[in-house]
């Protein structure tokens, strides 16, 4: 969905800039747009940068770390921290927490009750992480994530450089190298999953990355996720071209001018259809593939690593330790089938909350930037960006 969002945002900026630029020059075609001092652009760029960083950090901690914990957590498995005590008594210190009787502990005079999942609330999950790993625990695995992202870009660029001379310039072939890069980096992603779901460890980041034997086991499910992710991006792009919302050439999105009496309405309907298709593919294709990948990775957690949330390492007896002749991991189909409906609902609710927070940040960013434009540019965006919009398109990848 990122490519589609990027295209929609860029198109909106282009239209806005064109509108304001025309308003600036309505006194004559020869009039040069008024330039503002450099500090105006600096303030605007700084504001946008702050909001982008804030949105990314929230997406990482809530949409990736907490979501990963929600995917593997099984409230019925094991002995863990009493969630109600942490949630209802914010003044409790670590010693009090450690002395708390687990909610799933029972005696002869008590009936067993399934405890409330730690990831049922974002606040509870964040507090749980911080109580176990410190204030920066919600950003655990960030080093591995950066390594994976940068290396994926490099490997994807190498694959793309190989394909381009062969005449494979279609955007589908540009997205394909990204999937190959993700498959090649399967063990790095596996290490990220293990860091996120396990208790803090003294092992270095490099020692958490397993060897080739683990790659052979994990690569197939990464392939599934990578293909699902690329299809979620490619199909909406195809729809956008078919509906003439934008054109894609040489790996860039070019807005198609809204012509005719109903041009603007048709573009708006096209964007709505693209967003709807992206949402459906994300829910029905991308999320199930990601859930399957994470649960398979969780089943491969080393024996010496303790999980930070309760989950059954055997997934109901479906996995057998490799030391006794088993595969040492759960199968892809079992990984999805053992993800119960309550857990699916919990994950969807969590992702909906993350989306709501992201939209709120986007709305706030838009309001702040609009205010700055009004104050610094006299309400005319063309003064801040006199040469926009650019003639080139927006990179798809």
Automatic annotation (TrEMBL):
Keywords: Membrane, Transmembrane, Transmembrane helix. The keyword Transmembrane helix applies. The chain crosses the membrane at residues 39-58, 142-163, 175-197, 218-243, 263-285, 354-376. This is Uncharacterized protein.
